[in-house]
Design a protein that fits this description.
Elements lengths: L2 H15 L6 H5 L6 H13 L4 H8 L3 H13 L3 E4 L9 E4 L1 H21 L5 H22 L13
Antiparallel strand pairs: 1-2
Protein name: Transcriptional regulator, MarR family
InterPro entries: HTH-type_Bedaq_tolerance, HTH_MarR-typ, WH-like_DNA-bd_sf, WH_DNA-bd_sf
Organism: Frankia canadensis
Length: 157
């Protein structure tokens, strides 16, 4: 096995181990979203209202899994069912104001944690990290045939 790939494997394993997401104190407060809600709400925020089938396709998950996850989000008041804005038959899930607030609160905690972790890094190093992680994720998305929509940045072509 090539040594550089072993190094990448080890660092990815360790990355998955670290808790950049909200601290354990914040999690115990009951204010934090679970991982699936954070991911699903993030996707709906970017794409707009989505059906359960669209979410299942976007995450390459079984519809029953997404149905369970979205049922919990509906019960928690994070999303609501709305008629398809495009006139389709399937109802779609839209983020409620409370769901959007909680998503932004959690994202603020995550970004704050990242700011602490990367406080000693230069702007250039942070940009390089974001670029390399983006390239890695896009390669994974191509391999698995599903893409995550990304915002256009100034200077993107």
């Amino acid at each position: 096995m090539p040594e550089d790939l072993q190094d990448v494997e080890r660092e990815l394993m360790l990355l998955a181990r670290h808790h950049v997401l909200p601290s354990s104190t914040y999690k115990r407060s009951g204010r934090t979203l679970d991982r699936s809600a954070y991911l699903l709400l993030s996707r709906i925020e970017v794409e707009g209202p989505m059906s359960i089938g669209q979410l299942a396709d976007a995450f390459a998950l079984d519809v029953s899994t997404v149905n369970r996850q979205t049922a919990a989000m509906l019960q928690a008041g994070l999303v609501e069912r709305i008629p398809d804005p495009d006139g389709g038959v399937a109802r779609k899930l839209a983020i409620t104001p409370d769901g959007l607030r909680r998503l932004h609160d959690d994202r603020g905690v995550v970004v704050g944690s990242l700011a602490t972790i990367l406080a000693d890094w230069s702007d250039e190093d942070r940009r390089s990290l974001a670029e390399i992680l983006g390239r890695f994720n896009i390669a994974c998305e191509r391999l698995n045939d599903y893409a995550w929509p990304r915002p256009a940045r100034v200077g993107d072509h």
